[in-house]
């Protein structure tokens, strides 16, 4: 196991997690809604970023493995959050907000896939 690779993933994950925390708090404080807009936003933004990162990495050898580990696995992995998404859906179901939960679940998946595709498209021009 390469210690430098682990450090790149760890540092990226730290920065991604801190960025997620700040982003979710900022969005949720502004909207003050039952709907988990903050988590939705970080998951969609992270999907877009991952599309850009991996498309650029595939096309440009100079990006290198360490940058892919730092940005793709580390930062995007720390920035996005499936566990919070699952918890928020569970909470909506417990509150008997079934339609809201279904809209959040479906909307998150569709928006994430569209954001990833958009990131791939943008990455082709970088």
Can you characterise this structure?
About 85% of the residues lie in helices and about 0% in strands. The protein starts with a helix and ends with a helix. α2 runs antiparallel to α3 and α4 packs antiparallel against α5. It has one domain.
Query: What is the total tally of β strands?
Result: 0
**Main sheet?**
none
Distance between the termini: 32 Å
How much β-strand is present in the residues? under 5%
Q: Poorly predicted ranges (pLDDT <50, ≥5 residues)?
A: none
Helix content: over 70%
User: Which radius of gyration do the C-alpha atoms yield?
Assistant: 16 Å
Number of domains: 1
What is the number of helical segments per DSSP (H or I, 4+ residues)?
5
Please tell me the overall pLDDT. Answer: 95
Write down the overall geometry. Answer: globular
Order of helix and strand elements from N to C terminus: HHHHH
Task: Quickly list its features.
single chain; 126 residues; 85% helix; globular
How does the SSE layout of this entry go?
Layout: H1 3-31, H2 37-59, H3 64-79, H4 82-94, H5 98-123
Helix pairs in contact: 1-2, 1-3, 2-3, 2-5, 4-5
Briefly say what this structure is.
The chain has helices at residues 3-31, 37-59, 64-79, 82-94, 98-123. It is mainly alpha-helical.
